[in-house]
Amino acid sequence: MSPNPPPPPGGPDNRDPGRLGAEQGWPRWTAWVLVAVFVLALFVVPALSSAESAKEITYGDFIGKLQNDEVKSSTYNNTNGHITGELTDGEKFTTTGPVPPSDSDARLMTEKGVSFKTPEQSIWPSLLVYLLPLVILIGFFVWMQRRATSQMGGIMSIGRSRAKMYTTERPGTTFADVAGYQGVKQEIREVVDFLKFPDKFAEIGARIPKGILLVGPPGTGKTLIARAVAGEAGVPFLSVTGSDFMEMFVGVGASRVRDLFQTARKMGRAIIFIDEIDSIGRKRGAGLGGGHDEREQTLNQMLAEMDGFEVTTGIVMMAATNRPDILDPALLRPGRFDRQVVVPLPELDDRRQILEVHCKHKRIAADVDLDVVARGTPGMSGADLSNLVNEAALFAVREGDTEIRMKHFEEARDRVLMGQRRESMVLSDDEKEAIAYHEAGHAVCAALLPNADPVHKVTIIPSGMALGVTQQLPDQERHIYRQDYIEDSLVVRMGGRIAEELVFGVISTGANNDLVGATELARKMVREWGMSERVGPMAWGSQGPVFLGEELMHTRDYSDDTARVIDEEVERILREQEHRCRELLTANRKGLDLVARALLEHETIDGSEVTRLIELARNGSSAQRAPSPEKSPVPADALPPGEQFTARPSES
User: Fold this and answer.
1) What is this structure's pTM?
2) What residues does each domain of the chain span?
């Protein structure tokens, strides 16, 4: 195998041949420089060669020296009167006389042997006068012809596919570089094995999947998995993005789809990967405009190529998207995209493996426990974890450390989740006290409620848009959420507002974010999750976007009476959890004061310190954690993944 294989067709080096030659050889302006040097040489070189080291004298001195026989030899130029010669002492001289010389001077020069010479005129100056404009004119027409040819070539090649081809000689990423996702890699590996060993599957009668759609949130590694397939597959791999098919001319996208599949057919067996397929695979006939547009023509051609009248074998389509809900149903049916491989947010073990991959080439201190880091990053994608490790390295460099320590990971996580600390922000003593009690209310509720996630850290240092933050770290991965867990979460959200009301007798704007989140959560409990006995087992999800064409106006599927009942139930849930929160904080007022004083003194305390202060305030009393009745489980999509690791900001 050669160390530098030639670039594949359609790859990044597949450019115009003339242009490529110009870039690899001499620059185009070299010819013009050579012409200019040649022209200057015609005029300058003769002048320099004729200029000798001679003494300049006057014409009268020359005549006097002739009369005194001091001139050994001389030559008179009849054209310009230039006189050169040599004196008897060997010194050379030069002068200029009149043209023509006077009769007496002419007789004297003749008597003294001065030779009169009429030099031959050079033909080059005369030729340049006529040839130079002609050469410039010819060069201009040649330049115009080449420019028109290149433009015509660009127009003629506009319908060609822009896919990049990867061969077995350029493996790059492999499955070993993809941490976690064993189930995803197993499904993808079957396709690779089918293309490598088709006879093994043909003996049983198995049919190769026509297409595999990678579905998952942004940053989960869908494109990375596709690159790993390119490295593992023993067949050519054509990679293209959905936006590469779109141009301002109608029909260009369809032409590029045809060219892409024709290129794949010539290779026999190949894998075609389309990243961000939702840019061209959106539902047809959707939206407010017409249906005969460039995007729909491109989609129609792709549908025909994937499973049209002409059956194609040995070509597998792979695509990636994070919006499968907007794809056209004809694109998702069996025979086109037979499999939808979900690439979810990584679990605890997957996060640990991903962190190990990103920490492989970094100096990690001995006190770093990646298990703790992985447990503290639920809901983070692979891209988020990569950014987390990089932020930790930046914090280490900023502090002058030679290794990345655990505290750097803590600071990096705070930076990613909450934003940059605003230590320069000046708060008054009254504001600091209000923020301290606000965050203490969140922390005390989270520490006492049986179904709430444990408190990880509480701080009143402004970060990002928040003036204070209470972090909760889940002790286990959650996939469904029980009603008692959600109700305790509502109590924790109410903790800051109720704490301000109990201590100061008034409420502030700091609970704005808490109230927005609590209201949205309670509304989902009633409308979507069936957690209201009065509404019953009915669900009304949010309406789809207008651009999908499903609804031109947001309408309701329920009556005004039902809407009134929903509003009353949302209010009831929030009032009940507010009452629970007020009773809990009233019973633990001493613990609330101790946590708030600790925050005012240290600005940041951890969860264990919060628990210790609450137990200290109880002074060994037999008070128990607040009870919560057992309720039915909640669907897996009850809370977004970010709810597992929550930050309770206090906004001004």
Assistant:
1) 0.60
2) 50-117, 164-342, 348-417, 429-644
Q: Which CATH architecture has domain 348-417?
A: Orthogonal Bundle (1.10)
**CATH topology for the 164-342 domain:** Rossmann fold (3.40.50)
How many angstroms separate the CA atoms of 569 and 556, rounded? 18
pLDDT at site 595: 92
Q: Is the dihedral of CA 50, 52, 57, 61 positive or negative?
A: negative
Pick the CATH number of 50-117 from 2.60.40.2470, 3.30.870.10, 3.20.20.60, 3.30.720.210: 3.30.720.210
Q: What are phi and psi of 273, to 5 degrees?
A: -115, 125
**pLDDT per residue as tens digits for the range 151-183:** 544 544 444 555 555 554 455 677 777 777 777
Q: Coil, helix or strand for 498?
A: helix
Q: Which of 433, 439, 487, 500 is catalytic?
A: 439
Look up residue 242 and give its amino acid: G
- Specify which residues 211 forms β-bridges with: 317
- Tens digit of each residue's pLDDT (9 = 90 or more) over 281-306: 777 765 544 444 667 777 777 787 77
SS3 525: helix
Does the annotation mark 501 as catalytic? no
As a whole number of angstroms, the distance between CA 488 and CA 628 comes to: 8
Buried b (16+ CB within 10 A) or exposed e, 21-35: eeeeeeeeeeeeeee
Six-digit token string for 341: 């491989």
124 vs 141, residue with greater confidence: 141
Report the alpha-carbon distance of residue 34 to residue 156 in Å, rounded: 35
CATH annotation of 429-644? 1.20.58.760
Report which residue type is found at 558. Answer: Y
- Could you give the 3-state DSSP secondary structure of residue 564? helix
